[in-house]
Amino acid sequence: MAPRSSARPPLVALKDVRLQDGQRPLFEGVDLAIEPRTRSCLVGRNGAGKSTLMKLVMGLIEADSGDRSVQAGTRFAYVPQEPLIVGETLLDYATSGGAEPWMAEAWLTTFGMSPEKSARGLSGGEIRRAALAKAFAEEPDLLLLDEPTNHMDILAIELLEKEIIAAKCAALIVSHDRAFLNRVTQSCHWLEHRRVRTLNKGFDAFDDWAAKVQEEEAESLRRLNKRIEAETYTFYRSITAQRTRNEGRARALEAMRQDRALRVKDIPREIHLGVDSGVTSGKLVADLKGVSKSFFSPPPGRRQAAGRPEAGESSPHGPASGGSAAGLRPAGGELEQGERVILKNFTTRVIRGDRLAIVGPNGAGKTTLVKLLLGELAPDEGTIKLGANLEPVYLDQSREGLKSDMTLWDALTPGGGDSILVRGHSKHVAAYAKDFLFQEGQLRQPISTLSGGERNRLLIARALAKPANMLVLDEPTNDLDMETLDKLEELLDGYDGTLILVSHDRDFVDRLATSTIGMNGRGDIVETPGGWTDFIRQNPGFLSRDEGRGSRVEGKAAPVAATPTPSLDPRPSTPGPQKKLSFKDQHRLKELDALIAALPADIAVHEARLADVNFYSRDPSGFDATMKALDAARAKLDAAEEEWLELEAKREALVSG
Asked: Where does the record place the region Disordered (predicted)?
């Protein structure tokens, strides 16, 4: 949708603005105009200067040259990438910019925050929603939002979309969330090569337009190279040119060369991502049957059990054992006061190569489900069977592995030294860091100096260095620019291992997921084939905080059949259908369970023998025999898993039938 026409002058206009960042120019000749009541996005790579440009628009920093004009009386509100919450309560914070208390209260309530809540100890999502409430309460003419969807769940993002569209102010938004930008923007400003180009259409038209611009630039550079080549030949080799050579021609040739050097220098480096799926896992990755999990929150005034997090927007993590441990409900027990149900009676199966997305509100228990799938938590009820040869790598949204005082070098080489083992091969830490767009000068800087996007790239760099046949990515899109997201999507699309993805990025989920599990925070959980769009179409209102209360959805999405009235005569007149496996099949299922549990140890023994580099030279026949035994064990495991899955499917069909 095109921006609305306005007879009024722009709220803010930048003309021929230039800004130097140390030795390099950050902006050169930037022109930018923001129309009243127009919702625009500011697009560009990480490090291009988007946040700095927003500060220039607001007047928080001054340009080295150029003009900034502002319509008289224009009010600004700004939500930075990492808001700083001050004051005793959220109401104190929300009114600190001059908003009326009643207005601040209304907006805090709109974003699901209590005005009296303490401003300390907030989760990432709570910080973001409080900052947004403060900005809207100030009734700006221009609202500037820097990555507003970070740490926000899907419901909060959809609420923000509605409020931005309904607002009477203009908006300038920096975001990597394509679905969000598609819904709210009317124009696009593209910061590339230190200048800004403007498209008077919404973000849904951006990709095609940007691709066309890049093609034209590539063609222009090709023509410039041809001109330089022809002029150089003429200047140095032509007899005629030697007689008529002059300074003006020499300066023209040098100017073309300098122009080419600048254009080539402006071509941004691309991130280089790779992943090794390592050894092949068993066909079965995880089998969950009737799994339930709850956490118990002690009443006010009682000391909380050590290590138990408060219920909030971060999913709770419990000890890796069930039963009656502190904070956990005893298996099979009744619901206690203060108990928080994460999931109940959930059954699913993850097969090698599946791409499973987990979605839901913050605090619904998505990370808890991940830990159940990884075997790091035990269920209160039900069983979890994990497959063989799993080598998972877990990218944690909390970034707990990164300490602010450690350097980038330390983070990449936790064991010391100057090299890192990348998918089985040694690589110098500087070369590996360069693959992820880090400069050599950043290697000795503390992590606290890195931007959010740089810290996320660092986590991805550490995760992808290890072979993994199971990738678990918890909110991997936070702070990443769209080019890096595209590269990550391309990498994951070609990954032949198992992918478990926790994300609020609807477009990211749509592009990658083959199955989506939704958790609504009330213990209900449902699984649907496909991505986010498929899930929400088949389960309307399931994730809503207001709809579906009291509903009970267990396991896979399916219509709930009415419970038949039992017959007064318990003896059926005719034999009923078979409801369970035959004795032979049950016995075989137990045999397969034992076989699947034992074979990975045999495989590990053979692999350990083959890992000896001198084994073949010392005993060629023994090496060949071990190789054959390894192949046979792997084939036996695959066959056992296939048979187990067939018998399990047969058993489930009998039970449901």
From this structure: 295-331, 543-581
Is residue 172 very low, low, confident or very high in pLDDT (cuts 50, 70, 90)? very high
Q: Is 214 helix (H, G, I), strand (E, B) or coil?
A: helix
Residues 6+ positions from 252 with CB-CB distance below 8 Å: 231
If one compares 378 and 413, the residue with the highest pLDDT of the two is 378
Give the residue with greater pLDDT, 540 vs 585: 540
Residue 143 clears pLDDT 90, i.e. is over it: yes
Count Cβ neighbours within 10 Å for each residue of 508-529 and write b for 16 or more, e otherwise. bbbbbbebbbbbbbbbbbbbbe
Those residues with Cβ within 8 angstroms of residue 154's Cβ, 6 or more apart along the chain or in another chain: 359, 360, 361, 504, 506, 532, 543
What is the token pair recorded at 334?
A: 């009744």
Give the least confident one: 215-224, 231-240, 636-645: 231-240
Tell me how far the alpha carbon of residue 443 is from its chain's centroid: 25
Contact 150, 128 (CB under 8 A): yes
At residue 88 the predicted structure's pLDDT band, cuts being 50, 70 and 90, is: very high
267 membership: H or E segment, kind and range:
none
Tokens at residue 403, please? 């300490």
367, 370, 374, 380 alpha-carbon torsion, rounded to 10°: 80
Give the start-end residues of each E strand in 193-338.
Answer: 195-199, 284-296
The alpha carbons of the chain give a radius of gyration, in whole angstroms, of 30
Q: How would you classify the pairing of strands 355-359 and 515-519?
A: parallel
CA–CA separation, 657 vs 655, rounded Å? 5
Checking 122-127 for CB contacts under 8 A at 24+ apart, the result is 122/85, 123/151, 123/312, 123/313, 123/314, 123/362, 124/150, 124/151, 124/313, 124/314, 125/151, 125/152, 125/153, 125/156, 125/313, 125/362, 126/312, 126/313, 127/83, 127/85, 127/151
- Please provide residue 573's backbone torsions phi and psi, each rounded to the nearest 5 degrees: -70, -30
Dist CA 371 CA 444 (whole Å): 34
**Of 172, 168, 132, 169, the residue nearest 150 (C-alpha):** 132
Burial of 255 (0-12, 13-18, 19+ CB in 10 A): exposed
Residue 417 to residues 4, 145, 165, 412, 421: CA-CA distances in angstroms?
58, 41, 53, 10, 11
**How would you write 72-140 as a 3-class SS string?**
CCCCEEEECCCCCCCCCEHHHHHCCCCCCHHHHHHHHHHCCCCCCCECCCCCHHHHHHHHHHHHHHCCC
